[in-house]
Amino acid sequence: MTIRSAFDKNAEKKKRMKTHKLDQTDLAIIRILQLDGRRRYADIATELGLAPSTVQQRATRLLEEGVIKMTALVDPVPLGYSVLAMIAIKADGTKLREAAREIGQFPEVDYAVICTGSYDILVEVACQSNDDLISLISDKLAKVNGVREIETFLYLRVVKDSDQWAIPE
Questions:
Q1: Distance from C-alpha of 155 to C-alpha of 72, rounded to nearest angstrom
Q2: Which residue ranges form the domains of the chain, and what is each CATH number?
Q3: pTM recorded for the entire structure
């Protein structure tokens, strides 16, 4: 799970959901799955001194309640998408949600949030070339109804890339 996924397109629905109380066993299972999401429940059970059925039931409950997600994370760079950038957008307040939704549908966009501060929308993008990035900015983003200003921050080097939120002790 990433911090980002907590603010995905279902954020409004998630706000209405109850907060889950997790015990130490749930937290231990989550920590192990964060290290290796493909780890067999029987192996987790052995490590924690539990019955395999207990681990399976708890993991299933955590998945069904949306506490954890099991996905394959794809690194765009080996696939030829080596131009990575954060794009900050100022939008008209009356068109903010619609603009963010439309921008979030672009295939180059990996991450899109409505935020506070100097900008209204932040998006993280992966493109194959600088020309593709220019096309995204000029031919797509600038044409979205409600977009007023765009500032691009090209990534020079990623120094930390964590797809996991560390559970506080």
A1: 23
A2: 4-64 (1.10.10.10), 77-154 (3.30.70.920)
A3: 0.76
